[in-house]
Write a structure and sequence with these properties.
The protein is an alpha+beta fold. Helix content is 48%, strand content 19%. The chain folds into two domains: 201 residues, no CATH class; 129 residues, no CATH class. The chain is elongated and about 100 Å long.
Length: 335
């Protein structure tokens, strides 16, 4: 989804620019509005429904908005500019329908904007969509239709043109859109973005936190492995005579390695039992900051514990195998 910004710079030619863009190859649809899910512009108002007052987002959009944004209707129909009655029609999201008491059947119900400034009738219910960070719950949204005539009369106030693209030649298409933009805007700067990138920017801090956590986790594992490796080498050296005696008495290499590694792996297991509950508490508290979150599965900690044991085993095994395969005669000469 391509978002062309600062459309209000075109004054009353925004609708004409939209029609020109629609004729370009690779453009599936386009919609004019100042309100997009990744935008910062919001209009909150109060409406009266079922004799109760509700606070809701109020988004003026055009007749192509839902189709361009790939928004699905749960009930009812989309806006139709050919119907004069749709000038007072609205489409509400599922959250708004629930909050206004229209959960069972919202179609043809009426609401009043503000202090009886204007009455609207509901023609459709759109499925909930996110327009804030996933840290926030979806709130009530009311969509109203502004016709091309109204937009021209108001000086074409919508400042974003959302363009649904169906082309693998994206650079060429953007170049054509920019060329038309400069024609309509008298060579003003062409500013655009992609909606998926804008959504990605909402979670930049989480991504940065994830990268930092991964870096420090890797460093911690490397330091721990170095410590285990050094401790394993020291332990093998200290128990050289014992290893030699056990080999003379018939112990084989696997038995000796298992004996030497047992204490190390036992300590790793104890560390896991201490760390796992703390990790769960920390992660659960962090996830509480998101309105929409996944629960932490128990098997994640089991996999992490087995991974820790595997890494520890691989780290110490080389030293213990080296000590176990050594000639027992030379081992017994060590004082």
């Amino acid at each position: 989804m391509l978002l062309v910004k600062h459309m209000n710079a075109l004054d009353k030619q925004g609708v004409t620019f939209k029609q020109e863009v629609l004729h370009l190859p690779g453009v599936a649809s386009a919609a004019l509005s100042s309100f997009v899910p990744t935008g910062h512009r919001r209009w909150t108002n109060y409406v009266t429904a079922n004799n109760n007052t509700h606070q809701t987002e109020f988004w003026p959009v055009d007749e192509d908005y839902l189709r361009t944004m790939n928004m699905s209707l749960e009930k009812g129909r989309d806006f139709n500019p050919a119907l004069s009655s749709d000038s007072s029609a609205i489409i509400i999201n599922q959250t708004a329908a629930q909050a206004m008491g229209f959960a069972d059947d919202a179609i043809d119900k009426t609401i009043d904007l503000g202090n009886n400034q204007r009455q609207y009738h509901v023609i459709g219910v759109v499925k909930d969509f996110n327009f804030n960070s996933l840290r926030d719950n979806v709130s009530s949204v009311v969509l109203t239709m502004t016709t091309a005539f109204e937009r021209k009369k108001q000086g074409d106030r919508p400042d974003v043109l959302a363009i649904k693209i169906n082309s693998d030649k994206l650079p060429a298409l953007i170049s054509m859109i920019e060329k038309k933009w400069k024609t309509f805007s008298n060579n003003q700067e062409f500013d655009y973005s992609f909606m998926d990138e804008d959504f990605d920017n909402l979670y930049r801090s989480e991504q940065r936190t994830g990268k930092i956590a991964a870096l420090f986790t890797t460093l911690a594992i490397l330091i721990a492995c170095l410590g285990l490796f050094g401790l394993a080498a020291y332990t093998a050296e200290q128990r050289t005579r014992e290893i030699g005696i056990r080999k003379v008495l018939g112990a084989n290499v696997p038995e000796l390695v298992a004996m030497l590694a047992a204490n190390f792996l036992r300590l790793v297991g104890i560390a896991f039992l201490v760390a796992a509950p703390l990790a769960w508490l920390f992660m659960d508290k962090w996830l509480q900051g998101f309105a929409y979150r996944e629960s932490i599965s128990w098997w994640v900690f089991i996999v992490a514990g087995l991974g820790a044991l595997l890494i520890a085993g691989l780290t110490i095994s080389s030293q213990f195998i080296k000590a176990a395969v050594a000639n027992p005669v030379r081992s017994l000469k060590v004082e």
